[in-house]
Design goal:
The chain is α+β, with helices and mostly antiparallel strands and about 180 residues long. It has six helices and four strands, in the order αβαβααββαα. α2 crosses α3.
């Protein structure tokens, strides 16, 4: 999935879809992970499992690419399971907005215009971004960019979603085996 150097989209996709494993750049892939995943797939599909899902962020690793992992899992699966890849690319940028999306966009546009008018009346040239944090529409002063963003990466320093990794692992349990 997309996301460049930030695993947010991959992890949220994994939570939403019950993925067995989510590979993200914040937690580098290693050979032990891949061996564990192959062993898991062989064991579970041998016991009757019919479907598995692994999600890999586009920049999760320079060596363990999606193509490499597909070939590895296919080879090591020894015909017990089929491996198919789906590279979503720009398809995951969305389609028709949901009612929630439309309402959220309307609220943010209205608040953004209010803020622009307020700043203009105060002759304030601040550069702000609007977003939702902890359920509330907030503004972030972009002059703080260097303290907010991890140097050389396209991800924030505070990656709150990484605290959801244990939840993703717990939700991926089946038959007593840890899946992710």
């Amino acid at each position: 999935v997309m996301g460049r150097d930030c695993g947010y989209l991959a992890l949220m996709s994994g939570l939403a879809n019950g993925a067995e494993r989510v590979y993200i750049p914040e937690e580098p892939i290693n050979l032990d992970d891949l061996q564990e995943d192959v062993s898991y797939l062989v064991r579970e599909f041998g016991d009757g499992k019919r479907l598995g899902l692994f999600i890999r962020n586009e920049n999760a690793d320079d060596i363990y690419t999606t193509d490499f992992m597909v070939r590895l899992f296919s080879h090591e699966g020894q015909g017990i399971f089929d491996v198919r890849q789906a590279i979503l690319g720009h398809a995951q940028q969305g389609d028709t907005p949901s009612p929630f999306d439309r309402i959220q966009a309307t609220k943010m546009a209205a608040r953004g215009i209010e803020k622009l008018l307020s700043l203009a009346n105060e002759d304030d040239n601040s550069l702000l971004a609007i977003g939702v944090q902890e359920g509330s529409i907030t503004y972030t002063d972009l002059s703080r960019w260097d303290e907010l963003i991890e140097p050389g990466k396209t991800r924030p320093r505070d990656q709150w979603w990484l605290r959801l990794r244990p939840l993703a692992r717990a939700m991926a349990r089946e038959n007593g085996h840890v899946k992710g």
